[in-house]
Amino acid sequence: MVGIALVTATVTSGAPSQKSTYAAKADDCFTASNGNMFFRSGTGVLNGRIEGKLPDGIIYYGYDGVTGEDRPKTYSVNDDGTFTITFNLDYPILDYIMVGDDILYFYASPGDTASVTIDSTGCAHYSDDSHHKRLLELLTNDDPKLRINKKQLMAKALKSDFKEFAAWATTQVDSLSVAADSIAARLHLSAEEAKLLHIFTLVNNCTDCYDYKFIRKSHFNMNTADYAFMRRLLPYSLDCLMFPSRLFFLINRYKHCAPIFYMATGEENSYMNATDSAAMAADKAIFGTDKPSLFLQLAWTDINNYKESYEEEPLKTLEKMSQRTKQMTEPYLIRLLEEQATLLQKPQAATYELPAGSATDIFNTLTAKHRGKFVLIDFWSTSCGPCKQAIEHSRALRDSLATLTDLELLFVTNERESPLKTYTDYAAKHLQGEESLRIPNADYRQLMALFKFNGIPHNELVAPDGRIVTADFDLRKFKDVKDFKKWLDKIKTAIDTKKAQDK
User: Fold this and answer.
1) End-to-end alpha-carbon separation of the chain, Å?
2) Number of H helices, E strands in the chain
3) In terms of DSSP H, where are the helices of 306-380?
4) Which residues make Cβ contacts (< 8 Å) with residue 500, sequence separation at least 6?
5) 94 near 65, Cβ under 8 Å?
6) Consecutive H or E run containing 50
């Protein structure tokens, strides 16, 4: 590995670099730390045919547990019910797509093509040459329900401290792992399918154990001995990478648990961000390893860790990234973190033009009447608690923003996640006098793919000429209108500078 170095390359146009995919080059082939050739670049293809009622479309959420990004994509279904989906891969994955409201699991490997038929009853049939055919049909058609019971989990969390809850949760993880092995034996799954089902079950249920934090609305305790459920996942096994969507949520929970993300300040109930040395000590206490576990390394390759800090302290951020590569053990992840450091340093254009297509047409229709002004768009829904909290808490700020003559605010939700009466009542109370649109779910999904987001609330800013401002931002983080105007003035200066350069 070459290490992290300063870069002076210039980006003058195109989509923002911070939304790029960090993938191995086409001719790359990484040897994993265990000596296996797990990593290899290529394209996986899923061909499908739907025999029953055709859905509005297909969505792949694109959760990536390695980079921490979500890059949803939407796909159309041909009139004859056929569809084709391609995946740029660095290693094999077992993931899912949404065909209408139904989940369809698939296995994609670099260079391979798989085929599936969905019959008129909604049952999926994979071709005989598809890898892990029986496992995919089990997960898609039968849903073995190898998850901790949500009601029991909530009840246990509400009446227990974390130590007691975690001990109970660990027994649940163990029991469900045994159940997965029993199902694999009963259905005569291959050894590889049985292993994948076992790991799939572990990843799902270890993720569920972290629900304690959300149920109790509190930090975990600081005792690493209480994280026994995580020890069921081997600290350096790459098999977890094969479940990108599930891994995305597991790493999100792991990096935000108290021993890894927080450390006590010495004052009662007071916490601060953990140092890397504290995080490594906690990680070692959990897994009993001398080097950072795969899970801590994946927390470090999450690009979202660095964007904001790089803007404020670029050299310090790059130094932290460099030091982390020296602690990591997996060559592929080291190279990935080095790439992220390189991309962070590339200057990006102030705005970019949306690609031609139906999603852009939908978006332009929504915003066309505001051309000539900046348009701040808030994607939200009535079923999203953080969305409603943000709307209610930003009322005073939005009232002040309404005085800006070159800015319009636009709230966009969808019919499925914002039922009509609920939406109407909420908008009348909290969005009165502001422009709010409730659009078809299919259109909303296309916009999610266009702007590469799954989570809401999500904000975008449209420049007066219709181009999209590249800067990431969150309306909730502005203290007042003065703070917002200061940020917007920087955007305007960057746009004007680019225009002057182009003359």
Assistant:
1) 41
2) 18, 16
3) 307-312, 314-327, 331-345, 358-367
4) none
5) no
6) strand 42-50
Q: How many CB atoms lie within 10 A of CB 40?
A: 16
The token pair that represents 2 in the structure block: 């070459």
Task: Give CA–CA dist 456/416, Å, rounded.
Answer: 14
How many alpha carbons lie under 13 Å from residue 461 in its C-beta half-sphere? 19
Nearest to 333 by CA among 369, 363, 285, 295: 295
Quick check: helix, strand or coil at residue 117? strand
DSSP-H helix ranges across 346-419: 358-367, 385-393, 395-401
| CA separation for the pair 453, 472 (Å, rounded) | 12
In the structure encoding, which two tokens stand for residue 302, read together? 């999450």
**Exposed / middle / buried, residue 264 (Cβ in 10 Å: 0-12, 13-18, 19+):** middle
pLDDT of 22 over the 50 cut: no
Instruction: From residue 8, give the alpha-carbon distance in Å to each of 3, 320, 495.
Output: 16, 19, 20
CA distance linking residue 251 with residue 256, whole number of Å: 8
Residues for the chain: how many in total? 503
> Any idea what DSSP says for residue 63?
B
CA distances to 157, 170, 298 from 231, rounded to whole Å, are 20, 9, 16
Hey, which bits of 227-325 come out as E strands? Answer: 262-264, 271-273
Hey, what are 480's tokens? 């007042």
Closest C-alpha to 93, from 187, 19, 199: 199
**CB contact at 8 A, 259 and 274:** yes
Q: Which residue has the higher pLDDT, 32 or 493?
A: 493
- Check residue 355 and report its DSSP letter: P
Give CA–CA dist 120/54, Å, rounded: 10
Q: 237 near 231, Cβ under 8 Å? A: no
With the CA atoms of 245, 22, 11 and 323 taken in that order, what torsion angle do they form, in degrees rounded to the nearest 10? Answer: 110
Compute the Cα dihedral for 219, 221, 223, 228 and give only its sign.
negative
Cα-based torsion angle of the residue sequence 19, 25, 29, 32 in order, rounded to the nearest 10 degrees:
-20
Q: Largest alpha-carbon pair distance within the chain?
A: 71
Q: How far apart are CA 90 and CA 331, in angstroms?
A: 13
Q: Which of 60-69, 162-171, 266-275 has the lowest mean pLDDT?
A: 266-275
Q: What is the mean pLDDT of residues 347-365?
A: 93
In 440-494, beta strands by DSSP E: 458-462, 468-469
Q: What whole-number distance in Å separates Cα of residue 39 and Cα of residue 32?
A: 7
Q: Any bridge partners for residue 436, and if so which? A: 411
Q: What is the pLDDT of residues 372-404, one digit of tens each?
A: 999 999 999 999 999 999 999 999 999 999 999
Residue 257 has a CB neighbour count (10 Å cut-off) of 24
Q: At residue 453, what are phi and psi to the nearest 5 degrees?
A: -140, 150
113 burial level (CB within 10 Å; 0-12, 13-18, 19+): middle
